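Onboarding guide, step 5: your first structure request.
Type a short instruction followed by the sequence, for example:

Predict the 3D structure of this protein.
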Amino acid sequence: MPDSVHDAWPQLDKQCLRASFERAAETYDEVAVLQRTIADRLLERLDVVKLKPTVILDTGCGTGYVTRALARRYPRAQRLALDIAESMVRHARHGFGWRRLVQRRSLHVCGDAEALPLAGASVDMIVSNLALQWCDAQTAFAEFRRVLRPGGLAIFTTFGPDTLRELRSAWQTVDDRPHVHGFLDMHDLGDLLVRSGFAEPVMDVERFTLTYADVLGVLSDLKRLGAHNTAHGRARGLTGKHQFARFRAAYEAMTRDGRIPATYEAVYGLAWAPESARAPRAADGTVSVPVAELRRRPR
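The system replies with structure tokens like these:
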């Protein structure tokens, strides 16, 4: 991926991001229907994966839906559930309820996907559902590669650039400030995986359209999910009454069959840590290899 694409990626306010998800922990499950649907489709992809992990990391675990599914699929594996919001981690931990024997194999940690609190080559599988859009993907993939053992698997979903396109378009009629979070496309994500040292990346995409009775329903769901725009350049303070009226009118003009649409582009990715060590590719496409690893080809 060209450096210009990464440089244009909005710098996120981690403190604001964490606070948004701390507040949303109580309401997240009430509105996370799409998030669970995408998680189920992600987990279905493991049906064809011939890997028996002993240690699994669920990065961006939220309230623990994926962690619990992994416990059912891999009951003998040690599961590490990590999220940047402590309240989300608490909900994930409590979600096991009375299933203490299963819970013993699940360790819940508050942490950042861009700085995983794990030793190198300590995990067999990393699963991440709809968390990478809240990270610098290049940094997160480098961390995934660092903690994966040789032959380990990273499998994830994130949102692509068509996500909330109606909401973004409506705000663009008001001003040129970033009101909606930015998203990388699957080709750039695949390139980042290769540059981070992963092998055989497989990427695909799927689109969903949710519909609402009104614009406020869209905004309410986003708030309850904790899905706020946290870019440093975002608009600050309250939106003026006239600005909001213009935004709302522009969004309502996109009504279909009496319903307000909200498009989501789900990107699915899967990649392997090579069985042998491989140096990450530099920005110009070169790879640095120690002289000791070079061998003369036999004639």
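Each response can be followed by summary notes, for example: Residues 90 and 238 are 31 Å apart (CA to CA).
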